[in-house]
């Protein structure tokens, strides 16, 4: 009888122990929580996440001006336990024609790479992402053809963007329809 | 035995004297709290020790590795962070030794903290020689 009680006690203790680990927010989660609380976003940026996972965010950008106006661009923002020592990882879920985003969805944004510092907040990251659609740039490109076109002939670049956004081929590469 | 607390007298309140924000720019937690990593510091370093330390910086310095990560690191650029938070950042390759706020080389303003910094990071503090010399001259 005594043994059973002891076992029960131990079991309870273990359960409590594991429950504690699950419930306790990690330092990264505490900081992400603060960042999310302080978010003030324009209607062109939407951020969503499932209630029990704030380390994986779904970002939707709907630029209302510039080359990409009218499109709906979805991103996955994954944040690891080293945040904010390490920048969040951003991936574009649509295949798009953009000098700073490659066909695999990798994003070239200085603040997510060499210019990252731990005082940068998620707010700044999301605005930086939106800025790429307002002002795509030809320096340090991930889609070289798009960058060359932007540099050489802005009208042709704009046409290419239009074609790609409707879901079509540019230079033999198929791009996703982003008007849905 | 059950102990019921009927009343208490608070003897003192303490507060870190840190320029600018009351929160660490890295973890966004107040300096008067601990950095989120250090909620339960070191090898069961009792909170009591922490309070002792606040009275005397000499004792504080002997608790290297436990309690010291609480104290704010004030940079010569007047940007402050939890010691632990800034050390973690300076340890990364991306930091290049720069202050996360102003991107100047991060150096400590306070000489007490310089020893803390060296003891915790196991390497010389990036405190510039120029600043050391300045400390010797009367202001
Ligand atoms: Zn901190
Ligand atoms: Zn700490
Ligand atoms: Zn600074």
Molecular structure report:
The complex is a heterodimer of chains A (180) and B (139). With 180 residues, chain A is of the alpha+beta class. Chain A has one domain (41-174): Ubiquitin Conjugating Enzyme. Helices cover 37% and strands 13% of the residues of chain A. The longest helix of chain A has 22 residues, at 2-23. The N and C termini of chain A lie far apart (66 Å). The model of chain A is unreliable at 15-22 (pLDDT under 50). With 139 residues, chain B is mostly helical. Chain B has a domain at 17-40 and 70-122: Herpes Virus-1, CATH 3.30.40.10. Chain B has helices at residues 47-55, 57-62, 83-90, 111-121, 129-136; strands at residues 72-74, 80-82. In chain B, strands 1-2 form a two-stranded antiparallel sheet. The longest helix of chain B has 11 residues, at 111-121. The relative contact order of chain B is 0.14. Mean pLDDT of chain B is 65; it is low at 40-67 and 127-139. One zinc ion binds at residues 24, 26-27, 29, 35, 81-82, 85 of chain B.
Portion of residues within helices of chain B: 25-40%
Number of H- or I-type helical stretches of chain B: 5
**How many whole angstroms does the radius of gyration of chain A measure?**
22 Å
The quaternary state of the protein chains shown equals: heterodimer
Report, as a whole number of angstroms, the end-to-end distance of chain A.
66 Å
Strand composition percent of chain A: 5-15%
Number of spatially distinct domains of chain A: 1
Outline of chain A: elongated
CATH superfamily descriptor of the domain at 17-40 and 70-122 in chain B? Zinc/RING finger domain, C3HC4 (zinc finger)
List how many beta strands of chain A DSSP finds.
6
Could you tell me the number of beta strands of chain B? 2
Biggest β-sheet of chain A: count, sense, barrel?
4 strands, antiparallel
Apparent shape of chain B: elongated
Provide the low-confidence segments of chain A as ranges.
15-22
Q: What's the CATH architecture name of chain A?
A: Roll
Distance between the termini of chain B: 59 Å
